[in-house]
């Protein structure tokens, strides 16, 4: 999150200065993120909102164009990425953990090789400035989420696997 905030602070004069950033979640960086936003005087462009659930979460994803998860944590496939894809967000992320299984560079968004302010700035800049590219990534993300990760699809695959075993 801190690199994302730094990228937003370095975009003076670019076309994406009108974009807003919402940082959600109650992770360990929340307090540091809140302090950095205040120190950089970016409260008008960046909101650190903590955990969001229910209708607020649905509304937040529905109003978003881009979902950024700049991480190299070797975890599974984050549910937040699938939620963003289902809502039709273009992605800015890496190939960490299970992301490599679900996200394709230049199809669902921009996949970064490194998590740095410069890489984030370049990725968001491309997604924000290239409307046709962003719109195509949004459509691809939405289609992928619903065609491969919807609960009905997963249940069907699991049921077929059980039938094949039994």
Molecular structure report:
The protein has 166 residues and is mainly α. It has eight helices and five strands; from the N terminus they run αβαβαβαβαβααα. It has helices at 2-9, 30-39, 54-63, 79-86, 99-102, 117-129, 131-148, 151-165; strands at 21-24, 46-50, 66-68, 90-93, 109-111. A three-stranded parallel sheet has the order 3-4-5, sandwiched between helices. Strand 4, helix 5 (99-102) and strand 5 form a beta-alpha-beta unit. The longest helix has 18 residues, at 131-148. The protein starts with a helix and ends with a helix. The model has no long low-confidence stretch (mean pLDDT 91).
What distance separates the N and C termini? 46 Å
Strand runs, count: 5
- Helix percent band: 40-55%
- Give the helix tally: 8
Q: pLDDT under 50 segments (min length 5)?
A: none
Class by SSE composition: mainly alpha
Shape descriptor reads globular
Write the H/E string, N to C: HEHEHEHEHEHHH
Main features:
166 residues, mainly alpha, 11% strand
Strand-helix topology:
Elements: H1 2-9, E1 21-24, H2 30-39, E2 46-50, H3 54-63, E3 66-68, H4 79-86, E4 90-93, H5 99-102, E5 109-111, H6 117-129, H7 131-148, H8 151-165
Parallel strand pairs: 1-2, 3-4, 4-5
């Amino acid at each position: 999150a801190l690199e994302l905030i730094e990228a937003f602070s370095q975009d003076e004069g670019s076309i994406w200065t009108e974009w807003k950033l919402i940082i959600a979640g109650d992770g360990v960086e929340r307090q540091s993120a809140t302090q950095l936003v205040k120190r950089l005087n970016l409260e008008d462009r960046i909101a650190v909102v903590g955990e969001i659930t229910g209708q607020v979460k649905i509304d937040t994803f529905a109003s978003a164009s881009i979902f950024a998860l700049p991480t190299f944590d070797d975890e599974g496939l984050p549910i937040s990425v699938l939620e963003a894809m289902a809502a039709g967000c273009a992605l800015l992320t890496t190939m960490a953990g299970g992301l490599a299984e679900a996200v394709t560079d230049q199809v669902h968004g921009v996949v970064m090789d490194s998590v740095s302010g410069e890489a984030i700035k370049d990725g968001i800049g491309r997604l924000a400035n290239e409307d046709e590219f962003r719109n195509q990534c949004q459509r691809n993300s939405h289609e992928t989420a619903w065609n491969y990760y919807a609960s009905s699809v997963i249940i069907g695959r699991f049921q077929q696997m059980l039938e094949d075993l039994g």
